[in-house]
Amino acid sequence: MGETLAKKNISENCIICEQPKILGIHLYTSFICSDCEKDIVQTDTNDPKYEYYINQLKLVIKPEIYS
Ligand SMILES: [Zn+2]
């Protein structure tokens, strides 16, 4: 029983930093940790990092479309 309880600490892989995190938000079926969420908001749009974030987000928001 003790082991079952230990596994209750649910973490999910963040789509941005790809680390298992517990705190964060869900965007569609994906998970963004609160650290990355904060980072995205604070990053200047001119920062190359911002482009990376957006690219990662696009993967989540846009379903794969084959035309
Ligand atoms: Zn993250």
From TrEMBL:
Superkingdom is: Bacteria
| A matching Pfam family | Gin
Xref: InterPro entries: Sigma-G_inhibitor_Gin
Q: What is this protein called?
A: Sigma factor G inhibitor Gin
